Amino acid sequence: MNVSEALARATSMIGKGTKYGLGKGGTNPAAPTPADKNGYCDCSGFICWCLGLKRQTTHPAYPSGWINTSSIVADANSAVGFFSRLQTPTPGALWVYGWRQKRPGHVAIIETVSKSGCTIIHCSSGNGRRGDAIARTSAALFEKNPAAVIAWYAGFDATSTPLAHELLDEIFLEA
């Protein structure tokens, strides 16, 4: 799996009529969509599917057995599981914040980064009001949230690492 493949999977689901359901979807990374049999998915299920991960895991960094927003944040802050923390937005990285009191967290995959801001692709109940829970939007929700962290998926191949992108940019900018 690389960044291009993960973003292609994310983009492929925009406009497909996915419905939002908390705790739903993302259980079969080989499935043609992230949704469950009834067409429901949530943000963590969508992200797991985009990354080719099964949402349920036996990895010791996930004592609940599930990859969700709070566990992604904890993992990124400890760097012992699937994710490590980044300081700046990078295409393919996740922008995530965990549960706070009774409010669910949220996670998105960063699609583009520019001087004018970032675009993300995410599955949200708010997007569902427009008829599809999976949409491309600005990252304002995350940019304004002090609890949000940027997490990099360790399963991306070596050419997908943020450092590799920086080195490739330098090579092409010098040419």
What does this structure look like?
The protein is an alpha+beta fold. Helix content is 29%, strand content 22%. It has helices at 3-12, 43-51, 69-78, 125-128, 140-143, 162-174; strands at residues 19-20, 40-41, 83-86, 94-97, 106-114, 117-123, 134-138, 149-153. Strands 3-8-4-5-6-7 form a six-stranded antiparallel β-sheet. The model is unreliable at 163-175 (pLDDT under 50).
List the helices and strands and how they pair.
Layout: H1 3-12, E1 19-20, E2 40-41, H2 43-51, H3 69-78, E3 83-86, E4 94-97, E5 106-114, E6 117-123, H4 125-128, E7 134-138, H5 140-143, E8 149-153, H6 162-174
Parallel strand pairs: 1-2
Antiparallel strand pairs: 3-8, 4-5, 4-8, 5-6, 6-7
Helix pairs in contact: 1-2
Looking at this structure, what is the CATH superfamily?
endopeptidase domain like (from Nostoc punctiforme)
- Low-pLDDT segments, ≥5 res: 163-175
Order of helices and strands: HEEHHEEEEHEHEH
Largest beta-sheet details: 6 strands, antiparallel
Tally the beta strands: 8
Side-by-side strand order of the widest sheet: 3-8-4-5-6-7
Structural class by SSE content = alpha+beta
Question: Which CATH architecture would you pick?
Answer: Alpha-Beta Complex
Return the average pLDDT rounded to an integer: 88
> Helix amount, in percent?
25-40%
**Tally of DSSP helical segments:** 6
Here the CATH topology equals: endopeptidase fold (from Nostoc punctiforme)
The CATH C-level name is: Alpha Beta
Radius of gyration: 15 Å
Beta content comes to 15-25%
